[in-house]
Every structure is written in structure tokens, then in C-alpha cells.
Specification:
- With about 160 residues, the protein is of the alpha/beta class.
- The chain folds into 2 domains: about 60 residues, Double Stranded RNA Binding Domain (2-Layer Sandwich); about 80 residues, Orthogonal Bundle (Arc Repressor Mutant, subunit A).
- The chain contains 5 helices and 6 strands, in the order ββββααβααβα.
- A 4-stranded mixed beta sheet has the order 3-2-1-4, with no helix packed on it.
- The longest helix has 12 residues.
């Protein structure tokens, strides 16, 4: 059974979704590949305390690595990409090619990009930390402005 809540953040409202009590989604407003609202299940405010606490600590600059249990629903390749994303340290970036290399498939940069774009748990699985080979900002489901703001925040250069 799925349940959800909506919380405020410095980057706009975030919709948290859980299935059987385990976080399976974090979606931003106007996010590309955002599922339809009716798939989020019933609204439940009390289920997401730990996720809310960790997100609050992250946005306060006090948390660098999330320790939440996650339910990742995707293809085996997508899940392997999302696991690689979780290994990118706070404040650092990796290119799509570097992620493909880490997966042992240097020719898979485009596939890595597609899997990255389908990440169902933004911010917690830090797909915003992936950039182009030359360091340029490239696609982000939450929008390039949010991606820049998240990267600036993690680098300590954000202006709120």
C-alpha cells in the first residue's frame, strides 16, 4: 500500500511516497517523469518522520549522507546506476562517463543518463551531482535551476 505526504523545502514542495512504510519516491513540483498524483496513495503525515528529519538536517547543512531505507523500483541497470549515485560524496560531482566506467561499461554514458533521469528518489539519491564530461550542467528532472542551486548549496556557495 502506498502513502504520501508533501513537505516544504528551500527548493519548493517535495512529495514523499512510501510503499509498505519504505520510502520509494521523492518528487519535486514540475519534475520530469513525475508519476501521476493518483499513484501516490493516501495522504499520511505521520509515516515520514525519519525522512523529514534527515531532509531537514540536510537542508540545514548538518547531514551529508542519508541513511534511510529505500525501495528502488526499476530495471536492474537503473538500480545499479542509482546505487552508484549514492556513492558520489556530498559536494562532489561525477560525469555520466565516470559513472559508466564505475559500472564497468564505459560505452554506457547515454544509458546512465537515461537511468539518472528516471531516479525516483531525488536529492536523497543525488542525481543532481552528475554533470557533463566538461563539467557543464546537463539535464535534471527537477530543472537546471534547482540542480545549480543544489550544487551551490553543497559547495557552500548558495545564496538564499
Amino acid at each position: 500500500m502506498k502513502q504520501h505526504t508533501v513537505i516544504d523545502s528551500p527548493y519548493g514542495p517535495l512529495t514523499l511516497v512510501a510503499e509498505d512504510g519504505v520510502l520509494c519516491g521523492l518528487y519535486m513540483t514540475d519534475q520530469r517523469h513525475r508519476p501521476h498524483e493518483e499513484t501516490f496513495g493516501t495522504r499520511e503525515e505521520s509515516l515520514f518522520g525519519e525522512a523529514e528529519d534527515q531532509l531537514e538536517a540536510y537542508f540545514a547543512g548538518e547531514l551529508k549522507e542519508f541513511t534511510l531505507e529505500l525501495r528502488l523500483c526499476g530495471t536492474p541497470f537503473q538500480r545499479s546506476v542509482w546505487e552508484q549515485l549514492r556513492k558520489i560524496p556530498y559536494g562532489e560531482t561525477r560525469s555520466y562517463g565516470e559513472l559508466a566506467d564505475a559500472l564497468g561499461n564505459s560505452g554506457a554514458s547515454r544509458a546512465v543518463g537515461l537511468a539518472n533521469g528516471r531516479n525516483p528518489i531525488g536529492i536523497i539519491i543525488p542525481c543532481h551531482r552528475v554533470v557533463g564530461a566538461n563539467g557543464s550542467l546537463t539535464g535534471y528532472g527537477g530543472g537546471l535551476d534547482r540542480k545549480r542551486r543544489l550544487l551551490d548549496f553543497e559547495n557552500g556557495t548558495a545564496l538564499f
